[in-house]
Amino acid sequence: MANIALFQIATAWTYLGIDLSDFETRRQLMTNGMNLTASKAVHYKTQPIARRKDQSVVYYAAYITGEALHDERRDKTFWRKDDQGDVLHWEIVGPDGAQGWTLAELWNGAEHAAKKVNERPGRQTVIALPHELCEGGHEAAQRVARGHCLWLRDQYGIASTWALHAPNPEAHGESAKNWHIHIVETDRRMTANGAGRPVFGAKVRELTDAKQGKVEIERRRKDWEKRVNAELVRVGAVTRVNLGRKPQGDGPDYIPGVHRGPKVNAMLRKHQAATRAAMITGRALPSTPKRVASYLAYAAARKTANAAHRAIWQATGRAVSQIATASVLFDEPTPPPNTGKNRAEPGQSKDTATPIAPPSDVAQDEEQARRREARDWERFWQQEARKALSQRQRDR
């Protein structure tokens, strides 16, 4: 009975895309019932800063920190505009002895260390944050960003600057929750000399290699995911993030939301401001730009699809909650299968070991019955989820 219940839980949990081996997730499900909601996908995008695209690490460092920085190579001064949202906090993370580094010293040094015309002096990363980590204070978000940059330093020997940004003050709806982290990192391994000044070493080839680079990016994403989920548990939030390439928070056919770029965001804000002004003054409403209308139609379709998948997850999750609650009463360890011909104790030879008797017909019949029952349970939960989805669509 216990083994069947555990198998049913694992099967249903796999269908939901959640790992039951996470003890904290299972404990919260036992204590909070269905308060544990589907995991959300979080934007994590990292890309090199390339000179062939006329990009500069000094510009990105000035943009994310809000400080005015002079690029010595270009003889230009860069700064962040006032209407681009608030910079709440920023830090430099470098090797031991790098506490006295300044932004201008670090990132102008990175530009000078890149000698080639088409070289990549650094890398930039943009990461979206769950609003649960920021609305009650910024300490949790700062711990996540600082810990991730320290992990990058220990793994690759690089230096970085990270900054926490608040949503745009003119944003509305979901955009008002657009808390995010910017990271600018060096493309070379960093050390500090005797005077504590930055020293640029060899390039970090594993991040730019065609094959190894994909593996390293996935390692970075997994580290961020673990840190964010740990902080969500600490602050008592019921959501979890999933940075897999195919988000599985709402099932294997999960449809993610629509990512708005900076151009669409600017057009949408301008159109909303013009619409509000026309409504206040009593003038005719302005026409919706074609690009904004296309985005709104696409976003509405995605929102409908997400609601349908969320209904499936909730209907199936209620059944899984009942099974998980029952499994606590019959939680017995399942012995691993013994695939050898003989069972040998430590220090015992194979010749003197006790032979294992082949499984009897009764045992095989019981195993087949257990598998059939598990398949029937899985089919039942899927049918219930489809019924719930159909009922939800009819109610509309």
From TrEMBL:
Residues 329-375 are annotated as: Disordered. Pfam families: MobA_MobL (PF03389). The keyword Zinc does not apply. InterPro entries: MobA_MobL. Residues 55-270 form the MobA/MobL protein domain. It comes from the Bacteria. The keyword Membrane does not apply. Keywords: Conjugation. Belongs to the MobA/MobL family. This is MobA/MobL protein domain-containing protein.
